[in-house]
């Protein structure tokens, strides 16, 4: 059993979550998805990855994919991550969630936390989150069924071992929405994870945390100034990013700002100044 599974189990048990360590294997293969064969045109996986990045930056996606496939088939996690992301969003290749899932799974299958020289931990951390997201909805073509329990375990591992803000946010959403037979709705747990992600600058977490604090939750009284502070930070970040998917953040801020008193706004401004000084 890989060491990271044992450690994850101990950490999760310590939190009394009662979740089993996930079976990470996809199909036992470390090669490219079925029907593809990487070309052995490179000296080593690292050199192939560098050539792949050169091709990617120049827009030569065919060459870059061949190089990434060679590096990925020979154990390079960065190449696996890059291919996973390309297939996940259709960046230079046809969008293919099945292939993306395959590459992300290879990363976590081969992760060894006893390896003292890990320069790819952010890639590993994000791969756990990606597999968790896919586990929520499943992949019908590949036979991967929706599995909220595995998603919970993926997010927990990335949140606890790597402090991954996306994992913390996804955990919060699971606790907000609940998942039958896996986790019940628990706003207090959700706020705990949102606060951790918000402190790392996760704007969606900041927005939800601010909304919950401003309005109160589960019998907890509102913290209007504190909530308005987080909503202001999230609104500012959303305006800067100009991502249409974050339009809801502006709506939450506008509703809170309209309901806030002058005192709420003044104290929120003080909180915001203190936060910026600390960070």
From TrEMBL:
InterPro entries: Sel1-like, Sel1_AlgK, TPR-like_helical_dom_sf. The keyword Signal applies. Pfam families: Sel1 (PF08238). The keyword Nuclease does not apply. Transmembrane segments: none annotated. Residues 1-25 form the signal peptide. Keywords: Signal. SUPFAM superfamilies: HCP-like. It comes from the Bacteria. Coiled coil: none annotated. This is Sel1 repeat family protein.
């Amino acid at each position: 059993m890989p060491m990271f599974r044992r450690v994850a189990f101990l950490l999760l048990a310590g939190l009394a979550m009662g979740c089993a360590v996930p079976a990470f294997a996809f199909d036992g293969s470390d090669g490219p998805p079925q029907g593809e064969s990487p070309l052995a045109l490179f000296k080593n996986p690292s050199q192939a990855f560098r050539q792949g990045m050169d091709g990617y930056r120049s827009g030569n996606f065919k060459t870059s994919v061949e190089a990434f496939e060679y590096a990925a088939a020979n154990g390079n996690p960065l190449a696996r991550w890059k291919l996973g992301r390309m297939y996940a969003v259709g960046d230079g290749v046809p969008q293919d969630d099945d292939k993306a899932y395959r590459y992300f799974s290879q990363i976590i299958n081969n992760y060894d936390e006893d390896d003292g020289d890990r320069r790819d931990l952010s890639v590993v951390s994000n791969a756990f989150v990606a597999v968790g997201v896919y586990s929520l909805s499943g992949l019908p073509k590949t036979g991967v069924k929706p599995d909220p329990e595995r998603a919970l375990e993926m997010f927990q591992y990335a949140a606890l071992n790597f402090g991954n803000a996306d994992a913390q946010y996804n955990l919060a959403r699971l606790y907000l929405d609940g998942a039958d037979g896996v986790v019940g709705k628990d706003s207090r747990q959700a706020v705990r994870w949102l606060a951790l992600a918000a402190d790392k600058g996760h704007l969606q977490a900041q927005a939800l945390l601010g909304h919950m604090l401003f309005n109160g939750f589960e019998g907890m009284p509102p913290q209007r100034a504190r909530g308005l502070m987080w909503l202001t930070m999230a609104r500012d970040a959303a305006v800067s990013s100009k991502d249409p998917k974050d339009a809801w953040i502006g709506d939450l801020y506008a509703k809170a700002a309209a309901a806030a008193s002058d005192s709420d706004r003044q104290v929120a401004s003080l909180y915001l100044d203190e936060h910026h000084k600390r960070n």
